[in-house]
Amino acid sequence: MSKQGIPRPKGWTLATRLTIWYAISAFLLVILATGFLYWALVSNLNREDDQFLSDEVHVLRVLLADWPTSSAAVNREINSEWVTRQYAQVFARILDSRGQALIASRGMSTKFPPQRFPSATNSSTGLPRGMDMRSSTGERFRALATRVSVDSPSHREYTIQIALNRSREEDALSKYRWDLGIVLSVMLFLCVGFGYEIARRGISPVKKISHIAARIGSATLHERIPQAGLPAELASLAATFNAMLDRLEESFARLSRFSADIAHELRTPVTNLRGEIEVMLAKPRSSQEYRQLFDSSLEEVNRLSRIVDSLLFLARAESLQVQLRTETTDAGREIRSLHDFYEAACGQAEVTLTCHAPEGLTAEIDRTLFQRAVGNVIENAMAHTPKGGSVSVVAAANNGRLTVQVSDTGCGIPEADLARVFEPFYRVDSCRSTPSRGLGLGLSIVRSIMKLHGGTVEISSAVGQGTTALLTFPTHPLLRKPQITNS
Amino acid sequence: MKILVVEDETKTAAYLRKGLTENGFAVDVAATGVDGLHCASEGDYQLVILDVLLPERDGWSVLSEIRKQGKHTPVLFLTARDSVQDKVKGLQLGADDYLVKPFAFSELLARIRALLRRGPARNVEEICVGDLVIDTVRHKATRNGDALDLTPKEFGLLTLLARHSGEVLSRTTIAETIWDINFDTDTNVIDVHVRRLRSKLDDPFPRKLLHTVRGVGYILEERG
Fold it and tell me: Of A298, A340, A375, which has the smallest distance from its Cβ to B185's Cβ?
């Protein structure tokens, strides 16, 4: 089968789906990890800054105890010591309890007008938390406002507003973010790449199977999918597939043998017809001769016609298109009719035909097909039983089944032939002096009829002693295996 | 007796016309469904033989149209299709009989005669063919006054042949009627039965009544 013959399935391929899933999940994990690390870094920095600020608050608080005597010291601390630092620049403003600024770093009022500063919290509760904010000049600060109270010599309250310039930290963080961005985009590509590679490797046995399967056609039905090296799940798939190929190959072989047999069987009567007619037409003949030609032709045509009918029946039965017309059938009566029917022919062949069927042996079966099945088996027995032999038909009911056993004292069927007697056109050599020229379809038809009824046919034989055929019909349709009937 | 044959296959139509004409019927042939319907509606036929697969209009629609017109002319379907559903469909539409191709001409003839006979076959008490006399009530047969010693089946077979004296009876018909065997057998079973009957009926007498028609069946008649 060509590749173009298989329509491309709609939607994404398995490899694409797997790649996408791998890539998304791996990338999400990377994002989660880097995100967490970044968050941890930022919170560490914040805590350090807050600790730093609260240290400075503590210094001011100590100095404020001596306020206003210490104003020079405070001024020196906040203006000369803090603001002029290169790295940890700190700006501060101290307010009294009425909110009046007592002292402030240079530039504090321009960078942080008092009303823009976050409101103060009480210093008593653990480490005060600062806030990120921008100054009026646009720089980033960590700002902290806290109330401090001084008890000696008298109770006073101050509010300290203090801010740490963290532009440098922000620069470092922003560089870090940029690095993270680069790492993440590289990771994204890597995730997709690795995901695709994993998916491709995982899928490759499936592709291999599909490739082999696509290559198998009617002429290469013997090919199989090698199971070695496949992962366990796919090995069982391959085994299932190979078993299907076994069955296909088997039925294909049977079908082509059957077609060849049909052609062969039809060829004989057609050759006879053609030859006889050609010879007769070559010269003028008497009407007597023409009559003989027609008689002979009619016989051949009748034979052809019977072959066609039988083949059609077999084909229909095989596809379960034959509808059974079941009725309550007195099997004993049918067998006695068959006995009457065949008795004369048996008598002429010097074969004894006996029948044993109890009264009231009834079954829900197709009467005509029952006759045909039993009749075919009797005919077969007659054809393979030499003079002086006997054919006996015994019908019985047991366990919801109707059995008909046809035994003969004929020449028997060799072991090798036994398995093939049900194949169409398969004939076992007759031991009779005048073999009858049957169609070779009798037992195939019997098997089809039994299959339609959900019954079975078994043949056992001993060479030189005789053959026994056992037909088993379920007596009631409910006992039958469900079968499909095409309407 | 006028018969209309609606059949598009030229060879089939030709031999049907010939065979039926030689058996004493007047035959008209129509090759399409439309022609067939026209003839069946206008003409006065005792029987219509109708193919199912016809050009222009299939046999089923021709039949239902004929029945719609209120005509009850017996219709015999002739077709290559033989599934049960097809048969049932034909009979439901009002066909009187159904014959599957390939069929034996003798079979067709027998069916036609059965359809035209209309009603039960004559059940006469005494049937005579030449010097053969069959008493169907007392189950006795004599030739030239001599009683024939026949088994019940042989008597049945002889009566069947005598009732249809002059008609060829196929082996299938004989097996169905006498033994109630409804499948075609490849063996010479019927021939053996006929041979036995013949040995009692014809062998002792110079004039033979029971004749074999090779490839077709048997006929009981007095031949000159």
Answer: A375
- The answer to whether A344 contacts chain B (CB < 8 Å) is yes
- Cβ neighbourhood burial of A65 (10 Å; 0-12, 13-18, 19+): middle
ipTM of this complex: 0.74
| pTM score over 0.95 | no
Query: Closest approach of chain A CAs to the CA of B41, in angstroms?
Result: 33
Q: How far apart are the first and last CA of chain A?
A: 33
Query: What chain A residue is nearest to B81 in terms of C-alpha separation?
Result: A312
Say if residues A334 and A374 touch (Cβ distance below 8 Å): yes
Q: Tell me how far apart the alpha carbons of residues A380 and B156 are, in angstroms, rounded to a whole number.
A: 27
Q: What band does A484 get if pLDDT is binned at 50, 70 and 90?
A: very low
Residues of chain B contacting residue A340, judged by C-beta atoms under 8 Å apart: 153, 179
Of A163, A128, A159, A160, give the one whose Cα is nearest residue A143. A163
Each residue's pLDDT tens digit, A143-188? 888 888 887 777 888 888 888 888 888 888 999 999 999 999 999 9
Note whether A425 and A261 are within 8 A (CB). yes
3-state helix, strand, coil in chain B (%, to 5): 40, 20, 40
Q: How far is A427 from chain B (nearest CA, A)?
A: 15
Q: Give the per-residue pLDDT at A486.
A: 39
Q: Is A302 on the interface with B (CB under 8 A)?
A: yes
Residues B40, A261: Cα–Cα separation, whole Å = 45
Tens digit of pLDDT for each residue in A1-14? 444 455 666 678 88
- Are A430 and A440 contacting, i.e. CB atoms less than 8 angstroms apart? no
Cα distance between residue B170 and residue B215, in whole Å: 9
Residues A113-144 have pLDDT tens digits of 877 787 777 655 677 788 888 888 888 888 88
**Beta pairing class for A362-366 and B217-220:** unpaired
Q: Give yes or no for A372 touching B (CB within 8 A).
A: yes
Cross-strand pairs, A159: A95, A147
Q: How far does A366 lie from chain B, in Å, by closest CA?
A: 11
How many secondary structure helices (H) and strands (E) does chain B include? 8, 12
Q: Do B84 and A323 touch (CB under 8 A)?
A: yes
Q: How far is B68 from chain A (nearest CA, A)?
A: 27
Distance CA B129, CA A86 (A): 146
CB-CB neighbours of A6 under 10 Å: 11
Report the residue of chain B nearest A343, measured CA to CA.
B189
Give CA–CA dist A368/B183, Å, rounded: 7
B155 pLDDT tier (thresholds 50, 70, 90): very high
What confidence tens digit (pLDDT) does each residue in A184-232 have? 999 999 999 999 998 888 888 888 888 888 888 878 888 888 888 888 8
Instruction: Tell me: pLDDT of A325 over 90.
Output: no
A41-69 pLDDT per residue, tens: 999 999 999 998 888 888 888 888 887 78
| A193, two tokens | 């790449």
Check pLDDT > 80 for residue B122.
Answer: no
User: Nearest Cα to B206, choosing from B131, B128, B147?
Assistant: B131
The verdict on a CB contact (< 8 Å) between B153 and A323 is no
Which positions in chain B have a beta carbon within 8 angstroms of at least one beta carbon in chain A?
82-85, 102, 104, 153, 175, 179-189, 192-193, 195-196, 214-216
How many angstroms away from the CA of A322 is the closest CA of chain B? 8
